[in-house]
Design brief:
Elements (H helix, E strand, L loop, with lengths): L1 H34 L1 H19 L6 H34 L23 E4 L4 E4 L5
Antiparallel strand pairs: 1-2
Length: about 140
């Protein structure tokens, strides 16, 4: 019977050691990747630039690439000008003609007493204490 208890203890000890090693290994890899993330990002951007240079700037299709970039630029300018014209139209026809004013709830600018008050229920005395500081 003593042997069975010892085996359980060893299994628990081994599993705790395994979990500790797993956590420490994960933490170490996290630190390593955090420290070299800029290197990984730089390598990624370099590989993307090589791909773009290879696929985008082909001498045979340079005319088509420039034409496509020009069309995208014209479209972006058209959208930008449409937004500016819509903003000016909206300001002129709606915002500048807005003559509404906010009116006070009370004509004499006094505060009104609220119909509710803050209350605290004391469990020990089983009574409700009302806060009269708002009046």
């Amino acid at each position: 019977m003593i042997q069975v208890g010892k085996d359980k203890f060893l299994k628990i000890k081994n599993s705790l050691l395994f979990m500790r090693n797993l956590i420490l290994t994960s933490a170490a890899w996290t630190v390593i990747l955090y420290l070299i993330k800029n290197v990984i990002i730089t390598i990624g951007w370099f590989l993307i630039s090589l791909l773009w240079k290879k696929e985008l700037l082909i001498p045979q299709s340079m005319r088509y690439t420039v034409y496509t970039i020009f069309k995208i630029l014209i479209y972006a300018i058209a959208v930008f000008l449409t937004m500016i014209l819509w903003a000016k139209y909206n300001y002129k026809n709606y915002y500048s003609k807005n003559k509404r004013k906010l009116e006070n709830l009370n004509s004499d600018n006094s505060t009104t007493n609220l119909s509710w008050k803050e209350a605290v229920f004391d469990v020990n005395t089983k009574e409700i204490k009302r806060d009269n500081s708002l009046e």
